[in-house]
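User: Hi! I'm working on a homework problem where we have to compare a predicted structure to a textbook description. Could you give me the structure for the chain below?
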Amino acid sequence: MKNSPADILLTYWGHDSFRGSQEKIISAVLNGEDVLALLPTGGGKSVCYQIPGLMLDGICIVVSPLVALIRDQVSSLREKGIKAIALTGGISFEETITLLDNCLYGGYQFLYLSPERLQQPLVQERIGQMNPGLFAIDEAHCISQWGIDFRPAYLQCAVLREMHPEVPCIALTATATSKVAADITDNLKMPAPFVVKDSFSRPNLIYRVKKQENKNQQLVQLFKKDSPSAIVYVRSRRKTQELSRLLTEHGVSASPFHGGMTRNEKDDKLRAWKQDKIKVMVATSAFGMGIDKADVRKVIHFELPESIESYFQEAGRAGRDGNPAEAVLLVNPEDENRLVKQFVAVLPDVAFIKLLYNKLNNYFQIAYGTEEARDFPFNFNHFCETYGLNPSLVYNGLRLLDQNSVISLSQHYSQKTSVQFTATKAAIFNYLDVNPKSIKVIQTLLRTYGGVFEFETKINPTLIAKKSAVKEEEVLSVLKKAEKDGILLFQNEQQDMSITFLVPREDERTINSFAHKIKELNRVKVENVRAVLAYVKNDTECKSVQLLSYFGEENFRPCGACDVCLSHSSVTDQEIKELDRDILELIQKRALSPQNLINSLGRDKELVLKELRYLMEEGKIVLTNKNEYILTK
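Assistant: Happy to help. Predicted structure tokens:
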């Protein structure tokens, strides 16, 4: 081993001390122990495996879920002069071999790859020949089916332990209940891991729930005084476009971000946001793990999250620099029904899974007891239409069958077909006069979907075909021609998935083997939704205390600054005005950090932080890059 952890921290990261339990975790890894590290967002998880990876002999193999996260980590290491390789998608077979050979013979210290890459026989073969010093499983909650971002491929991470049982393994996550933590250690074959859990408490982050009829108006209001670096989370691609346009119209620098964008588009937007050329990113969950920007001042959830875990993780992207920040959840009376409809009403029960499996076999004419070890091309929309099944239930059911190794779904599947008209209505009428064969499809499309002139709108070609009394192929042909003629924008990603049946057909017997898991998983998802609704409705207990209690942390003092705490505050309006005056007088004399202000004022910390946020929102003070407050010029 080389130098000490503290020496390496100073040399490569420029810090002279560790945070939280980092040093304790690193010591355990260096002693050859398996470790489960539960650290809050912004708690410095990567250092916990990167420093041991530099000190131990052999290469450190890191499994990470997102290409963007892998690229950022590898780029950061290379900038420090550390040899690291990223094994991501889009790499040719020959290049993959070259990269793996570099890991074997080129003196590289880190190999980052996705769990899907790890499943490839070539990759496993070469890793088997390597001399690894450490395995690191990042975002380890993805291993657990009870976790918020379950990825079936993560279950294969244990193959690393099978190939090199003597190599220590560290699993890291910022979001895990006790059940998820147990799942992680079981799946990674960690019989007696060293478990470290730092408090998830974030004193600088204030949680708010704002109940408003008009959420659009409330969103604009949140950015009225200034436009700090912020994220607004929504559920649909269309909503990212709609709200970013709304904010832009009100003078806020905002941009959409969603999974339908190309890799270059995502990279460009992320770079602009990190450089503050874009202040507010209106995003789906595609803007997720690995988003590392320390000075995000606001994270706003425009729609209710599906679980406390996902909300806590996304909200935690605010205030990672330790300065005051807020996480705001916007709620209106319709949101509860919308959440239940979106996440509870589409949970397939055991009876539906049995029905779905039966229909799948009938669809492909597979006889009872037969095993078909080949890929079947599968048109999702046609299947749902043939049997009159709810597409959301079918999709969730297929995922369950895939996760339980009854079938294998192709990874390239996408449900997205979208249209946005670019021509005026008058131009469209003229176009139809010249192209009468397009009339039925175009008119049906316009009658069926609202907003197709304003937004990229996801459509169902099978539905359009049925309403138009034409074949689906004709619908696609008409739309392709209309795009070529400049009438609309048309995007038709791969619609067909492929299915491989992994076990012989035995109908109910096949499903009964994991029926208990379906029931338990549905129960957990229903509880997740109930927990979110309980959090929204609880107006008597501090919001921060509620969240920490959910993760098993008790006996925390109320934050003093959330909506609930403020409603219980005994501080008078006159006292607040006097405090604001004292703050401004102190800052007028010289620039002061938050801690200096708290020490000088001798008042409650949370109350001072709340008033600092208020004065910033009012445009009376600003926070410099030296973390000091000054008066606005």
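For your comparison, note the following. The CA atoms of residues 535 and 546 lie 7 Å apart. The mean pLDDT is 88. Good luck with the assignment!
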